[in-house]
Amino acid sequence: MEPKVVVEVVESLSSKYTVTDILSVLGVPKATYYRWKKKYKVIELTPLEELVIKICEENFYHYGHRKVKSILKRKHGINVNRKTVQKIMQKFQIQCQVKMKRQKYINGESNIVVPNILNRNFKASHPNEKWVTDITYLPYGSTMLYLSTIIDLYNNEIVAYNIGTSQDIKLVLDTLRAAVELRKPEGLLLHSDQGSVYTSYAYQNMAKEKGITTSMSRKGNCHDNAVIESFHSSLKSEGFNAQRRASMSNSKVVQIVNQYMYRYNHIRIQAKLNYLSPLDYRGQAA
Prior knowledge:
This protein is α/β, with parallel strands linked by helices. It folds into two domains: 3-91, no CATH class; 130-285, Ribonuclease H-like superfamily/Ribonuclease H (Nucleotidyltransferase, domain 5). 44% of the residues lie in helices and 12% in strands. It has eleven helices and five strands, in the order ααααααβββαβαβααα. The protein has helices at 3-13, 19-26, 30-39, 47-58, 65-76, 82-91, 169-183, 201-209, 226-239, 250-266, 278-285; strands spanning 130-138, 145-152, 157-164, 189-192, 213-216. A five-stranded mixed β-sheet has the order 3-2-1-4-5, sandwiched between helices. A hairpin with a 6-residue loop joins strand 1 (130-138) and strand 2. Helix 5 crosses helix 6 (82-91). The longest helix has 17 residues, at 250-266. The N and C termini lie far apart (51 Å).
């Protein structure tokens, strides 16, 4: 479709539909549309508006106005009020995606339940001091998949993750084994919920053999493991926000998770890390 035609179509329908919905049907990215719109002199974009649109496009519209403001200052030397950035993003409908609500699941029968030693103290003074772990559903492929993840609370870095077709003990044992082999932690506190895989003798015994102290959330209290709950929510909303159950192959789901994990650790900035990525933050502190 010709750029000029796209601009004309959007202009003619914008009184009835949102620009986002029209572009979605046409298969045209927002940033591309606004470049075409500028070219055909329908509107004039300011240099700041162009840059904000470009930053949002490069980061797949996952960042809110505070993170965009940080990038403007750190990478482009532009110090602007966050409300100005927010207004631009609202004007061009390029706000970050809203997280999906977490699906609930039923825990299995408990075997070994340990105290909540972490007690919502999510701050760590050095790497491998405190890890958190959890399992989440990935209901996007031809069959249900499960993701087991371990996060280092020092810099919210993904230490290890594993995707399986069953929410079983092997899934969490393989994840823990990979994390320990990679980091070789000493004096580590590892926190989880009271899911049956974490209260199992196999999991607790492996942790003990590795010199790891385990901690568990209170029954039914997701806030006790809020960091990894939030991460899994972000992965779903940012990685799969346009997807629906059974809309793709399992191999595609795995590919999307792998890409997201790399981006999260290496590229995706976080406010609590002084607007650095987890690996950049750890490297800066080294």
